[in-house]
Every structure is written in structure tokens, then in C-alpha cells.
Design goal:
Length: 739
């Protein structure tokens, strides 16, 4: 029974909890169904609504962006329109700067419109056109104003470079505002600033600068007689010229600087002193802008047409040049003060301060020009030089006389009476002397030029000294190149010129030996170390003279042989025609030699003269000997006629030796002919053979020890004997003795 009770108790407790659990399950199932319904509802309806909303939102956003863009474009278009309108009204009132600024504003509006991508409006093209028209209109107005402000009265273009025309040029500046009306004429600043804003100022100034250079500044530099005359009137400023009658050919830099400065001062007062806002550059003055445009050309012109001419040509005037340097500095300072030049501009001053180098350059140029003129002048204008003529030496002051530079006194290094190049003792009379001869005046002047240039060098600064020394070397190298080429034809054709040229070269070589040395003690600087020498050029000059003269000798020898070739080999002289031909040939040769003897007379040094004439006479004699010795048959009459032809040569040959003008002094040289003519004795021996009998010939041979053996070989003598004598016992005996 107790068990039963327990079970009942348990059961009665179990039932209600089971009941509530079932209820709970039912509730959960219901909830789950609700959720499913809700989920289906969300998936079907709410999601769709949401998508629609998002799409709407995006569309609205794009709409807004589009509207904003259109609005800003409209704003820009409105801005553009307003600025153009304002520009127009400003232009009406001649408010040029405001108008220009409005135009620039319109330009930037248009630019920002054009920069929008995907937004090509047809209207933009029209706006661009409108802007261009407005800009051109404005530029035109400003141009008109500019032309009212700055008026050029120029000469007619024909002959505008002449002085008469230039005097008529005038520049009128209407930049002075009239007193009575305040703003009717816009002040110059407004026009300029407006041009600057539009970016048009540069080209206007460029034109103005060009005219200023062409009609005012450059004429003032190149015409010393022109003077600028500024004239101020109440409403206009005029700049014109006056021409002075008695002006120098060249004005000093000081005067030119003064005139140019005056022009800039008045321009500065009436036009250039205008401050401007340059887009992208900040504040500048008109003077600065103009300076940038024309200074380079102006400074070039000042250097080449003014400073160059003022460079002194000799070193003594270099001192006075300081004045030029100072005025150049003042001039640059003045232009910098007017802001025409930037602070660091020093082209002119640099040039002026570099005067030493310019002096040397100019000097060298002048020297080389002078030298070239001398070299291309006539060779045949000559001057006689003798051993005691020291024409070409300028007086070289004593090293101790303190001329130009203080130098240590040079002790006498050599006993007196011999060569000393100091001044203690004179040279012994014939040391390093040239024999008497004639040289071209131009060459004497050339050597003088070299001496004077070196003299100048010793008084100059080191830099200058080296340049001048090189210049002198150049003179001689130039001679070496120019003369033989320039005078080539005459040197080949005219024996006298060849002789003079030979002397010229020897004369130059002679001076080159001592040229550097003579200046050694005159200079403390570069020339004093002995490196400044010309000795290396000596052999070349000697060779130059020799080669030219030897070429002439070859020509003359050729002519002699040519003439003798018409003598029919001197054979068969018993034939009258042959004899005449030979006689004529010999007369022609003597005539040629006589003519040469005359053209070389007093020109060549005596020793050269005698050697040259001797060599040519020798050519003739040797040729005659060769021809006669080669004959195979000489009849008695032939022999007589050959002898008489040879006698003409022996009698008249020496008379062609006339080295000196004084007749009586030439005898000595005519008697010395055997010394200069190698074949003289040979020729005399040949004449003896032509007249001798067999025995006399054998005696002259004297077993190979006689005078005949000195001049002819055994074979030659035998050949002559066979030609002259018939084949007899006596001839055979004589031939046997010649061996």
C-alpha cells in the first residue's frame, strides 16, 4: 500500500510539469511559424522597397551634382559677361588698367570653363571669339594712346643713315600731363600698366628700343658732330639733334658717355621712371625692361665704335687711359641708378679695364696690317745698305739711362774692342756686318717695325710684352709665307728682283741673329731671361733667299745652253752658214751675260755677284769645250775659225763682270775672273791646242805633268789630236807620248 501511495505522489507531480512542457512546445512552434511568415514578408516586400529607395537616392544625388555644375558654369558665364561689360565701360572712361584687369579676369573665367571635362559647350567657342575681339580692341586703343604719348619724327627712309638725315630725327614725348585737365589724357603709367597686364608691353618696348638705337643712340656714338638737344615745353618734351661744324673724326669715350647719359636722363624723367606690376615678375620699372632689351646691342656698339678707337697705340699713352676707365665706371653707375642696368652688369667697364690686353691686340693688329702692306708693296724700290749703315736700329737707350724701366747696369762682360751688346763699348766695326748691297725699302721698314714693336714690348706689362713679342715673330713668319707666294711670278721672271729678294732674306736673317738679344737688357720682365730669341728663324730665311736666287740661276743657265745649242755643234766652221750660226750664238750668250751683269750691278753683294757671274760664264765655256772636244774632224780653217770664236769669249767674257757702279773699280774683278770661272784655264788650253803643232802639244802635255795635263785627260787630248792632224807617222809618235 505504501508503494502505491509513493507512485501516486510521483505521478501527481509529474503530470503538471509534462503539461507545461507541452504548452511550451506548442508556443515555440507558433513563434517559429510567425518568424517564417515575417521572414517571407521581409524578403518579398521590404527588400524591394529598400532597393527602390536607394536607387532614388542615387538619382537625386546625381541630379544635385548636375545642377551644381550647371549653376557654377552659369556663374562663370555670368562672371565672364560681367567682366566683359565692366571692361567695356572702363574702356569708355579710359580706365585702362581696370579694363585690362577685367579682361584678364574674363580670360581666367573662360579658362576654368574650358578645363571641365565632358562639358563641351558650343557657347565656349563664341566666348573665346568675343574675348579675342575685346582684347584686340583694347590693344588697338592702347596702341593709339602709345602713339599719342611717344611720337617719332623720322627722316624719309632713303639715305636715313646720312648725317643730314639724322639731324632731322626728333622724338616727342607727350607724357607731361597738361595742367588744366586732370584725367582726360590718361597718365603714361596707366597705358603702360594696361599693356603690361595684357602682355603687350614687351613688343611695344622692343619697337621703341629699336628706334631709339637706330635714330638716337647709335648715331650719337658714330657721329662725333651730333649733339642731343633736349627741349621742354609745357605739354611736350622734344629730343632733337644739333650738328657741330668743327668736330673731330673720333670723339672720346668721355664725350660719348656724356651724350648717351643725357639722353637716358631725359628719357628717365619723362618716360622710363614708371613702376609697373609685371605679371609673374612683381614690381619693375620701365627703365629695367628697356635696359634688358637694348643694353646688349648698345654696349656692343659703344665698345666697337668708341672704346676700341680710344685704346692707345703706344704704351706711353696707357697712363692717360685711366681717365677713360673712370668715366666708364661713372657712366655705368649713372645708368644703374636710373635702374636701366642691373647691378651686376659690367661689360663696358670690364672691356675698359682690360686695356692692356686690348692695347696689345690693337697694337698687334696694326703691326701685322702694316707688315702685310709692306710685304705686298713693290720689291724694286730699293735702298743701299753698307757695312756702316745701322739704319734699321732705333736709338736703343742705354740700359742705365733709366728710360721706361729701371734696370741693373750691365757690367762689361767682354774686353773692349770686341763684341759687346751692352752699351759699354761699341761693336768692332766689322763684327756681324752685312756686305754692301741693295734691299727693298719695304724690308728695311719691316725690320724697323719689328725693332719699334719690341721696344714697345719692353716698356709694357708682362702680358702685353709676350703678345707683342709673339707679334714680331708672326711678322717674320708672315714674310716667309706671303712674299714668295705673292711675288712668285716676278721672282721667277725678273733676275733683278730675285737678287733683291735674296738680299732681303739675308738682311732679315742678319737682324734675326741679334734681335732678341738687343732687348734682353732693356726689359726686367719676360724678355730678359734670354728665351726671347729669333735665332731659330735664321736658317729658314737664309734658305729662302738662296733657293729663290738659285732658281733664277738655273733659269739663266738654261737660257745660255739653249742659245749655244743653235751653234750647230761648232762643226764644219769652214761652212759660212755654220760659222755665222756659231758666231751669233756666242754673241747672244755674251749679250745675256752683259745684261745680267748690269741688272745685278750695285744690287748683289760683290762676292755673291762674282760667284754668280762666274758660274754662268763657266757654264758657257764648259759647254763650248765639251762641244769642240767631241768633234771628230777639224780642218785647218775650222781650227782658225774656232780659235777666233774662242778668242771673243776670252776677250769679252771678263768684261761682263761689273759689280760696282764706278767703272775703274771693276778692273780688279775682271782680272780675277780665273778665280771665279772654274773652266777658264781649260778653255785657254783648248785655244792653245787649236793653234799648236804636234810638238807643241806634246810639250804642253810634258809626260802628264804640263799645263795641258792639268785640264784634259789623255783620252781627250788624243781625240783632239786625231781630229786636228792627219794620220801620219809623226801623229802616231805624238799619240804614243800622250798617256
Amino acid at each position: 500500500g505504501e508503494v502505491c501511495t509513493m507512485i501516486n505522489k510521483k505521478y501527481s507531480e509529474f503530470l503538471p510539469s509534462m503539461q507545461s512542457a507541452e504548452d511550451l512546445v506548442a508556443q515555440v512552434e507558433g513563434l517559429s511559424n510567425n518568424i517564417d511568415l515575417l521572414k517571407a514578408g521581409i524578403e518579398n516586400e521590404v527588400q524591394r522597397d529598400l532597393n527602390v529607395a536607394v536607387a532614388e537616392f542615387t538619382e537625386l544625388k546625381q541630379q544635385l551634382e548636375r545642377d551644381t555644375l550647371v549653376l557654377s558654369v552659369l556663374k562663370k558665364l555670368q562672371e565672364f559677361d560681367t567682366t566683359i561689360k565692366e571692361c567695356n565701360s572702363a574702356l569708355q572712361e579710359k580706365q585702362y588698367v581696370a579694363a585690362a584687369q577685367q579682361l584678364e579676369k574674363a580670360r581666367s573665367s573662360l579658362r576654368s570653363l574650358e578645363s571641365r571635362r565632358g562639358f563641351e559647350l558650343k557657347i565656349l567657342k563664341a566666348l573665346g571669339t568675343e574675348l579675342t575681339v575685346q582684347t584686340q580692341n583694347m590693344i588697338y586703343h592702347l596702341g593709339e594712346e602709345w602713339q599719342k604719348l611717344i611720337v617719332w619724327k623720322l627722316p624719309p627712309s632713303k639715305g636715313s643713315g646720312s648725317l643730314e638725315a639724322l639731324v632731322l630725327s626728333e622724338l616727342h614725348l607727350h607724357t607731361v600731363p597738361p595742367q588744366d585737365e586732370d584725367t582726360a589724357v590718361p597718365p603714361v603709367a596707366a597705358v603702360l600698366q594696361a599693356l603690361a597686364v595684357l602682355g603687350e608691353l614687351h613688343s611695344k618696348l622692343k619697337d621703341f628700343g629699336h628706334l631709339l638705337l637706330q635714330y638716337i643712340l647709335k648715331p650719337l656714338i658714330s657721329h662725333p658732330s651730333l649733339e642731343p638737344v633736349p627741349e621742354e615745353q609745357p605739354d611736350v618734351f622734344i629730343l632733337r639733334f644739333r650738328s657741330q661744324e668743327l668736330a673731330l673724326d673720333e670723339s672720346s669715350p668721355m664725350e660719348v658717355f656724356e651724350k648717351i647719359k643725357l639722353v637716358f636722363e631725359v628719357l628717365h624723367r619723362h618716360l622710363l621712371n614708371v613702376p609697373l606690376e609685371q605679371p609673374g615678375e612683381g614690381r619693375v620699372t620701365l627703365a629695367e625692361l628697356l635696359g634688358e632689351l637694348i643694353w646688349e646691342e648698345l654696349s656692343d656698339c659703344l665698345i666697337h665704335n668708341c672704346l676700341v678707337n680710344s685704346i692707345p697705340t703706344n704704351s706711353s699713352k696707357l697712363e692717360q687711359y685711366k681717365e677713360v676707365i673712370e668715366s666708364t665706371e661713372e657712366f655705368e653707375k649713372a645708368l644703374k641708378k636710373m635702374q636701366f642696368l642691373k647691378e651686376d652688369t659690367t661689360a663696358l667697364l670690364k672691356y675698359a679695364c682690360n686695356v692692356d690686353s686690348h692695347f696689345a691686340n690693337k697694337k698687334c693688329q696694326d703691326v701685322i696690317m702694316a707688315a702685310r702692306n709692306l710685304m705686298t708693296s713693290e720689291i724694286h724700290n730699293t735702298v743701299k745698305i753698307t757695312p756702316d749703315s745701322s739704319i734699321a736700329l732705333p736709338e736703343l737707350p742705354d740700359p742705365a739711362s733709366g728710360d721706361h724701366v729701371k734696370l741693373p747696369r750691365v757690367p762689361s762682360l767682354v774686353p773692349n774692342g770686341t763684341v759687346s751688346v751692352g752699351s759699354e763699348s761699341r761693336l768692332s766695326p766689322l763684327t756681324l756686318c752685312l756686305p754692301s748691297c741693295r734691299i727693298s725699302c719695304s724690308v728695311q721698314q719691316l725690320v724697323e717695325l719689328a725693332y719699334h714693336t719690341l721696344l714697345e714690348a719692353t716698356a709694357s706689362t708682362d702680358l702685353c710684352c709676350v703678345q707683342l713679342f709673339d707679334c714680331v715673330r708672326n711678322i717674320f713668319q708672315l714674310f716667309y709665307e706671303v712674299v714668295p707666294t705673292y711675288h712668285r711670278e716676278n721672282l721667277q721672271k725678273l733676275p733683278q728682283l730675285a737678287a733683291i729678294h735674296h738680299n732681303n732674306c739675308m738682311y732679315i736673317a742678319h737682324h734675326l741673329l741679334t734681335l732678341g738679344h738687343q732687348f734682353r737688357y732693356r726689359s726686367t720682365g719676360v724678355l730678359s731671361n734670354g728665351a726671347a730669341t729669333f735665332v731659330d728663324l735664321v736658317p729658314a730665311f737664309r734658305r729662302l733667299g738662296m733657293e729663290c736666287f738659285l732658281a733664277q740661276m738655273r733659269v739663266q743657265k738654261g737660257e745660255i745652253l739653249e742659245r749655244l745649242s743653235s751653234a750647230r755643234n761648232f762643226s764644219n766652221m769652214d761652212d759660212e752658214e755654220n760659222y755665222c750660226a756659231a758666231n751669233k750664238a756666242i754673241k747672244q750668250v755674251l749679250h745675256q751675260l752683259r745684261r745680267l751683269g748690269m741688272v745685278w750691278q750695285d744690287v748683289l753683294p760683290v762676292n755673291v755677284y762674282c760667284k754668280a757671274m762666274g758660274a754662268l760664264l763657266n757654264t758657257a765655256l764648259a759647254e763650248i769645250v765639251t762641244r769642240i772636244a767631241a768633234l771628230e774632224d777639224i780642218s785647218a780653217e775650222d781650227a782658225d775659225r774656232l780659235y777666233s770664236l774662242c778668242r771673243i769669249m776670252v776677250e769679252e767674257g771678263p768684261q761682263v763682270f761689273t759689280p760696282l757702279l764706278e767703272e775703274d773699280k771693276n778692273k780688279k774683278y775682271q782680272e780675277e775672273v780665273p778665280v771665279y770661272v772654274q773652266k777658264w784655264m781649260t778653255f785657254k788650253e783648248l785655244m792653245i791646242i787649236l793653234q799648236a803643232n804636234l810638238q807643241e802639244i806634246v810639250d804642253q802635255w810634258a809626260d802628264g805633268k804640263g799645263p795641258l795635263a792639268e785640264e784634259f785627260s789623255a783620252a781627250e787630248v788624243k781625240s783632239l789630236i786625231r781630229a786636228l792632224f792627219q794620220n801620219t807617222e809623226r801623229r802616231a809618235a805624238a799619240l804614243a807620248k800622250i798617256k
